[in-house]
Amino acid sequence: MEIERKYLIDKDLIPFSLSSYPSHIIEQAYLCTSPVVRVRKEDDKYYMTYKGQGLMVREEYNLPLTNEAYDHLLKKADGNIITKTRYLIPLKENSLNKDLLIELDVFEGAFEGLYLAEIEFSSEEDANNFTPPNWFGEDVTFDGKYHNSKMSQTKL
Question: Which CATH number belongs to the domain containing residue 123 in this structure?
């Protein structure tokens, strides 16, 4: 089960250097958007992911792939290939008093300039009670257009 909130980020309001944090280079594409079936290359690892319906809470299953399987499936994908760098930023001081992780995606290619932060939670209650840091922008959790699967279908 995936429980996450999403926020737009203004890069000029980020109060630290992103280069201080670990990151991953991600390329992903969608074989289907209803249900969501995605293939992803993250650094040198490859996955196929199934995601159920929902905006803040939904099923999610990841299966490992080989490089060859990823390349084969990538050719069958519909729409835009999403490319981004994901920064992993600990959020220790927060309204829930729990260790959380900001996954800050800096998009490249077709969506260059878009910065989107995601935070995963262990419960729906925590997600609903979370107060974002003051440098976070608009909460777009319930705006489906910021789901990567929808972005993959955006006409450019």
Answer: 2.40.320.10
30 catalytic, yes or no? yes
In-domain check, residue 156 = no
User: CA–CA separation, 153 vs 156, rounded Å?
Assistant: 9
- Classify residue 135 as exposed, middle or buried by CB count within 10 Å of its CB (0-12, 13-18, 19+): middle
Are 64 and 47 contacting, i.e. CB atoms less than 8 angstroms apart?
A: yes
pLDDT along the chain (156 residues), means of 10: 96 97 98 95 98 93 98 95 98 88 96 97 96 97 94 85
Total of domains in the chain: 1
* Tokens (6 digits) for 126: 């925590």
Q: Which of 30, 46, 70, 146 does the annotation list as catalytic?
A: 30
Query: Do the domain assignments include residue 87?
Result: yes
How far apart CA 107 and CA 103 sit, in angstroms, is: 12
| CA gap 59, 137 in Å, rounded | 26
In a domain, 47, yes or no: yes
Domain residues for 41? 2-151
